Amino acid sequence: MAIEIERKFLLRNDSWRQSARGRLYRQGYIMSGSGVTVRVRTVEEKGFLTIKGKSRGAARAEYEYPIPLTDAREMLETLCTGPLIEKMRYLVEYEGFTWEIDEFAGENQGLIVAEIELSSEVQEFPRPPWLGREVTGDGRYFNASLARNPYRRWPR
Predict the structure, then answer these.
(1) How do residues 55-105 score in pLDDT, each as one tens digit?
(2) Is there a catalytic annotation at residue 29?
(3) CATH number at residue 105
(4) What are residue 76's phi and psi, to 5 degrees?
(5) CA angle, 3 as apex, 102 and 33 as ends, to 5°?
(6) Selected catalytic residue, list 25, 29, 90, 94
(7) What is the domain count for the chain?
(8) Which of 10, 50, 131, 140 is positioned for an S-S bond with 39, CB 3.0–4.6 A?
(9) What are the DSSP calls for 12-77, one per residue?
(10) What is the pLDDT of residues 135-152, one digit of tens each?
C-alpha cells in the first residue's frame, strides 16, 4: 500500500519566493466524503487520477496514476463537483528537504500553504524561517475541503 505522510503549514512571510519555481495545477473531486477522495488533476500538460484514503494523523493511503491529458480535462469539466482547485505549486529546497508551497487562485485566492512529505510521522526536519502555524490536522485546509468550502467564503 502506498502511504503519504505529509505535514501542512501556513506561512509567516514571502521570503520563500527567492528560490521558488512553480507549475500550474488544476484539480477537482469526483468523490469526497467519509475520508476517501477521488481526485483528477492536471499539472501543466499531464493528467493524473488519485485515490486517497482516510487520514490517520499525518498519514493516509494514496494511489496516483497518470491518465491522458484530454481525459483529465474532460473529467474536470464534467465529473467534478464544487469549484475547481487552481493553484501554483512551488518547490522550495531548505536544508535537504523539499517543500511544496501552494498559492491558490480562484475561489481560494489569498491562501498559501506549505507542505512537506516525510518518511515517518515522527521524522524531524528543519523549520524554515518563513514557516508559520501548523494546520496538518485542520480539515479546512485539505484540498477536497477547499473545493466544498473555498477560502474566500471563510468568516474573517
Answers:
(1) 888 889 999 999 999 999 999 999 998 789 999 999 999 999 999 999 999
(2) yes
(3) 2.40.320.10
(4) -60, -40
(5) 70
(6) 29
(7) 1
(8) 50
(9) S-SGGGGG-EEEEEEEEEEEEETTEEEEEEEETTEEEEEEE---BTTEEEEEEEEE-HHHHHHHHH
(10) 999 999 999 999 999 999
